[in-house]
Amino acid sequence: MNVNPLVGILFIVVLISTVLFLIIAFYQIVKFSIQKILARKNSHNHKLTPSLIATIVTLAVIAIYLLSLRGPG
After folding, report:
1. This prediction's pTM
2. Which helix (H) or strand (E) holds 58?
3. Residue ranges covered by each domain of the chain
4. How many CB atoms are closer than 10 A to CB 34?
5. Which burial class, exposed, middle or buried, applies to 22 when counting CB atoms under 10 A from its CB (0-12, 13-18, 19+)?
6. C-beta atoms surrounding 32 within 10 Å
7. HSE-up (13 A, CA, CB side) for residue 54
8. DSSP reduced 3-state for 47
9. How many other β-carbons are positioned within 10 Å of the β-carbon of residue 67?
10. pLDDT tens per residue across span 18-73
């Protein structure tokens, strides 16, 4: 199997940038969620806000994406 080295390098760069993007996005989501939880404790408001729904959906999408990266098997 003869693979162009450029393809491998490109794949590694894309993989690293994807992982970095996911880490940064996850950090922002967690930080935002903690701020929302702290704000909610002060206001005693326990209904689902649109931002909380968006956070849950985003985490679900990231989880599905990470599972799809593993591929079959």
Report:
1. 0.43
2. helix 50-70
3. 25-73
4. 10
5. middle
6. 15
7. 9
8. coil
9. 9
10. 888 888 888 888 888 888 877 776 665 556 677 777 788 888 888 888 877 776 55
